[in-house]
Amino acid sequence: MGIGSTQPLLSIRNLTVRFGTFTALDNLSFNLDSGKTTAVVGESGSGKSVTALSVMGLVTLGTRAEIDAGEILFERKDGSTIDLLQCTEREMRSIRGNEISMIFQEPLTSLNPVYTTGDQVMESIQLHQGLTRRSAKDKALEMFEMVRIPRAEKVLTDYPHQLSGGMRQRVMIAMALSCDPKLLIADEPTTALDVTIQAQMLGLMKELQDQTGASVMLITHDMGVVAEVADDIVVMRRSKVVETGNVYDIFEKPEANYTRALLASIPRLGSMTGKSEPELFDLVLEANER
User: Fold this and answer.
1) Secondary element (H or E) of residue 119
2) Are 103 and 189 in contact (CB under 8 A)?
């Protein structure tokens, strides 16, 4: 069952990425539709983050990674379609943060500790939109207010270490959306947050997506998060796509044993009734993956 068979915003075709002798992505193919949230799910080491970094053109920077084959076709703001793998670094710099933005798992390591949050958001706005510093500051303030940062004008002058984890994540979302990208990649955006703040962030991202019309590629291992926000799912295991489809179809009738195991791992209220001790999840054997 395929995703986005007609005019996808992003189409990954037969992508193979290696780190030395290790194959991180093996003939990966899936589509992402405009205006939808596609969750890329799987256990650690399945290739989820390598997929995101490949789309951003960052996977080979400072690493031993080699892209052996494939295409990543992206429909730009002007309506043209390009293969991101064929872009020069200069071309990718004009796309990153402008047409494709990314929210990383831990904002404290993604934000520069020696610059204020306002300066970091303003830098992206000035670079891609050519605004004056004053106009960029107004835009940054508008974005901070959009993501509901309290005392937004004060936070513009704060440094990342002065903010809570939830506030730093809001700053990252504001930065990512400041140039009105067509695609937002969120790599485990709520993993470092407690459950209350996690719920707030997911609700905020969904609301902002509805407002801006951006597509979202959500990288996660949490099937509960997928059920809450995703339209489509790409299930990965050991560098390969195991299954793709609409979120309702996958949750109702998963075809792959591995997908069923992921769904079975979600804690359910009342599942321990009558049991004195927790039980192990069934392991998915290599021979029974499909």
Assistant:
1) helix 117-129
2) yes
- Between CA 89 and CA 272 the distance in angstroms is 53
Amino acid, res. 210: D
CATH class of 1-99+189-197+213-290: alpha beta
* HSE-up of residue 23 (Cα within 13 Å, Cβ side): 12
Cα 233 from Cα 259, distance rounded (Å): 10
Place of tokens 């489809």: 245
Cβ neighbours of residue 197 under 8 Å, at least 6 residues apart?
Answer: 165, 166, 169, 190
| DSSP code of residue 20 | T
- Contact yes or no for 198/190 (Cβ under 8 A): yes
State how far the Cα of 52 lies from the Cα of 249, in Å rounded to an integer. 24
Q: How many CB atoms lie within 10 A of CB 34?
A: 15
Distances in whole angstroms, Cα of residue 53 to Cα of each of 87, 116, 128? 14, 26, 20
pTM of the model: 0.84
Cα 45 to Cα 48, 147, 238, 270, 290: the distances in Å are 8, 32, 7, 31, 19
Instruction: Express each pLDDT in 126-167 by its tens digit.
Output: 888 888 899 999 999 998 988 888 999 999 999 999 988 888
The answer to whether 231 and 244 have CB atoms below 8 angstroms apart is no
Tokens linked to 272: 């321990």
Single-letter residue type at 216: V
Low-confidence ranges of the chain (pLDDT < 50): 1-2, 4-5, 285-290
* Angle (nearest 5°) at CA 43 between 39 and 48: 50
CA-based nearest residue to 12, from 22, 1, 23, 26: 26
Q: Which two tokens stand for residue 89?
A: 């670094």
Residue 20 tokens, joined = 């030395």
Name the strand (E) or helix (H) holding 38.
strand 37-41
